[in-house]
Each structure stands twice: as C-alpha cells, then as structure tokens.
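Give me structure tokens for this 161-residue protein.
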Amino acid sequence: MVAVDRRRDLPLAWLRSLRSRAASRRAKAPALSGDILAVKCELQLGGTPRSLNAVGSRGSWRAFHKEKKRWQDDLYYSLIAARVPLNCKRIDARATLHFATNRRRDEGNYRSLLEKALGDALQMGGWIEDDTPEFFSFKELTFGDLAKPAATIVTLEVQMP
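Here you go.
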C-alpha cells in the first residue's frame, strides 16, 4: 500500500529519479515462465476525481483533459512508487472513493475519468501493452465511508505471464 499526496509542485529531481528508476526496472524486469502469477497492489491517493458533470458534459473538453491528465500523472507515479511489476499479462482494477461530505453521487460520473486515466497511465508506463479489454479491465467503483480528507483507493489485481 502506497500513499501519495496530490501536490502540484513536486521537486523536479524527485520526479526525474522516479522516471530513471522506472526505466532501469523496465530493463531489468525478470522473464517469468510457467504458471500465471497474480499479485495484488493497493494505491492510495489524496482527494477524489471531479464529477463528469463538472468537467465533462457541462464543462469544456479542456477541463476534462486537464483533470484526466492530472489523475493520470498521479496514478503513474503511484504505480512506480508501489513497484507494480511491468509487462503484465492483464490488470483488473477496482476503486473506492471516500468523500468528505455525505451526499448522493452517481458512479458513472466518477468512473469514466478514473478508468480512462488509469488505463492510460498503465499503458504509458509499460505495465500493459494496450488499455483494451484484453489487457485491462476496470471492474467496479464503490463509494466508501466518509473520510476527512477525501481519498481514492485503487486496488489492482495484476496477472503476470
């Protein structure tokens, strides 16, 4: 389990070190043979994605893209920090959103942005070949208990070849 703060101004040297570690891990990834190995990983991120009503259907395409890109970057660095194995056969994801306020929410308004950002982050980092159903599936999104501050927990079930 890895907790990541959503800070916009991360030190540039820290980001570079994460990228170089990811590149070296990519080169040293062991080749596994035989049975399929399954690994579970949990990512904890501060905050929750904005509703599709706020950034998609009623906002401009730029607002959706900006929010998706921000979540994609946060998920990418969380995946690196959690040391998720590269070159996976398949990844199944589940997410739980914990909000600070108690009100009714529509799952689809939060699922689309989170699913798209996670799929793109997994493909960009080399964890999966493509974010098609053959390699990636976003199984479910649930709403958890109230939490202050708000949090997003993503659980990955990773299948190695």
